[in-house]
Specification:
- There is one protein chain.
- The chain is mainly beta.
- It has one domain.
- The protein contains 1 helix and 12 strands, in the order αββββββββββββ.
- The strands form 4 sheets. The protein has a 4-stranded antiparallel beta sheet, with no helix packed on it.
- The chain starts with a helix and ends in an 11-residue tail after the last strand.
Length: 129
């Protein structure tokens, strides 16, 4: 009985490494204990992020050989055309989105509410008033 307990196969494990991106974009290369390429980027549903080169990222592995997968969120959707590394695009149903661009601009698509009221731009000073 003692021997049978000693010979049990190890249970599944989960492993995570902190890595550094070596290839930016939606399918990245990461250096952990060695370089791994073409890793998919996962994030919460409706959130797209493309890590920049040199960014610290979390690489998750699971199972006895590190081959098992787990769901930590939704697979990212296709990024907007021309999206640059480091930019953030948050999107939802119906085409609404918030896009934080590298140049400091913020693009909002959809109806904007502030404190529960629909935003109406000020027309002060227009038309000679």
């Amino acid at each position: 009985m003692w021997l049978s307990k000693q010979m049990r196969s190890p249970g599944p494990t989960a492993d995570a490494d902190l890595g550094t991106t070596t290839i930016a974009g939606s399918s990245v290369g990461v250096m952990t204990r060695g370089e791994v390429r073409a890793l998919p980027v996962y994030g919460p549903g409706g959130y797209v992020w493309q890590p920049e080169n040199g960014a610290a990222v979390l690489v998750i592995k699971g199972g006895p050989g590190g081959q098992e997968q787990c769901v930590a969120g939704m697979r990212q959707g296709e990024p907007p055309s021309g999206m640059e590394p480091g930019e953030v695009w948050i999107y939802g149903p119906g085409g609404n989105s918030v896009y934080l661009r590298r140049n400091g601009s913020v693009e909002i698509r959809g109806q904007l509410f502030i404190n529960g009221e629909a935003y109406k731009p000020c027309t002060c000073g227009e038309g000679g008033l």
